[in-house]
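Q: Could you predict the 3D structure of Pyruvate carboxyltransferase domain-containing protein?
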Amino acid sequence: MGKLASKQTNIPFLQNVLSNDQFLYGTVDTQFIDENQDLFNLKPVQNRAQKLLHYLGHVMVNGPTTPIPVKAKPSSIDPVIPAVPMGDPPVGFRDVLLREGPEGFAKAVRRHDGLLLMDTTFRDAHQSLLATRVRTHDLKNIAPFVAHNFSNLFSVENWGGATFDVAMRFLCECPWKRLQELRALLPNVPFQMLLRGANAVGYTNYPDNAVFKFCEVARENGMDIFRVFDSLNYLPNMLLGMEAAGSAGGVVEAAISYTGDVSDPMRQKYSLQYYLDLAEELVKAGTHILAIKDMAGLLKPEASRQLIGSLRDRFPDMPIHVHTHDTAGAGVAAMLACAESGADIVDVAVDSMAGMTSQPSMGAIVACTKGTKLSTGIALEKVFDYSEYWEVTRGLYAPFDCTATMKSGNADVYENEIPGGQYTNLHFQAHSMGLGHKFKEVKKAYTEANKLLGDLIKVTPSSKIVETCRSSWGHIGIPHGGFPEPFRSKVLKSLPRVEGRPGASLPAMDFQALEKQLRESYGDEISPEDVMSAAMYPKVFQEFKEFTTTFGPVDCLNTRLFLDGPKIAEEFEVELERGKILHIKALALGDLNKAGQREVFFELNGPTQICAGQRHCGHEGDALPPQGPEGRTWPGAMKMETVVNSPLSGTVTKIYVTTDASLEGDDLILEISE
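A: Sure. Here are the predicted structure tokens for Pyruvate carboxyltransferase domain-containing protein:
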């Protein structure tokens, strides 16, 4: 078989010729081109293979394009994907939802015998343990196994929260594509997402129509259950999110963020009555499911019995769902207490992705309820297989694994009340600044800041700004009990105050204008999902599009190749789409030339390809966090500022960095003379 070579500009034309029916049947003459003007309707060349070689060469020369928190290499061991039977997976709760709608679904959940589980492995578990860095590639590998062996799960949480912006910002992949691909592979189990009320999946307030449109597009792409919460339990914000999710046709799960300790009579701000009153408002507003979101893992067994028992007595027909973290190590005990007190659903993560700042162990809950009226109906041996896959997969994310710096959970979370994901991030940051031995003081300062602000409910985004006093401006809502005075007035002075629901005063977003702007910038292949990504994160979406224009569909690469690039002489395959596979071999890495470049040699489907890798001080494609006043970073995926401490006192003699430069650990920043 011969090969047809062509200039790059002629490829679209030749593709049209080769797919023309008249040409295929061999009935062409010299008038063929004149009579088939549609041959000149040229589609832009994707050139994906060359772009991916460019990316691989770039990583081989410059290192990862995503910031690496710790010096660790991805494991060289690839996970073994468990076998699944041929044919369709068993019927699951999603079939009930599609058949009976949200109201019928909720009734079926309440009638169900035994304890139901939501699996957080696809979202909150890796958000808590692996800095939200798990890629769609690894989720897709295990999704069919989940579909065939865990069909009686209540849901799989796989979207929302920080996963939306991290997908574009650090993983260089489309969050909507993740949802679409997982839906095709896991059709029988409901998908669940975390919706931050009026904040949608962002860290700020959006116009009301943006929240409604987001829920509508999410529902169209396969999302089923919307866990709606507000970081301050501010009811107007929650009601907006509930209305948006409900109008889109989704199951509304209104979640009350839990803080304090209802079993301690000395702590009265967030008393049992406070939670019962708030739950009453949410039930009146029409929630299908009532959830308790224990984001820091503060629920103790006795508090669980009091809170869930009281909610069950008050709302006998309402499904109750409980979420927690295992930071203190009491998560399994607390969830069993919740189940015994009337909870229908509890959150778990597979064993190798459980514990510490993640959720309690799936295997432990399954084993502890086996043979009782709370039995989950899940086969324990299948949990073991599921866990083995994630144990090996977790090794691929060694550069982001919290266990690099944090070796255990800590019961002092009952004092500092730091949410699971933020606890991990703070620990990483403290170690990166050489303050790991002072983490106790960091937690003490967090506790003091919380008291100064009036003992806030702390969950994204309120937890990320507890030390900045910006919450006292009212930009994310009004906390329970209002703002502490005279502290608020002293801080704000003459600055404007926000009264009422922050998003209510925002003008509606013009989606048609936004789509037109995006088409002008990126061409006509802009989807409704792209428009929503740009609406939520304009700058992040722009950087994502620029990255993919340069480097192509890097989500097709396996995780080790994405993070670390190939080894010399390594051969591997990349599946661009079904039936289109690239065969690549990394041949050699040249020396640095006078132009500051190193040539990287690959073999692509046979012939040798050469790409030039420019050596950079920073990394092309690094997504910089959005900047606020004075160069400070607004809360983003890592949700923190970084402070650089000097190891000695002296005079700065030379500065090596510029504004907006991308830095890594051990980069030279400045010189100091004593």
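Q: Anything worth pointing out?
A: The longest strand covers residues 580-589.
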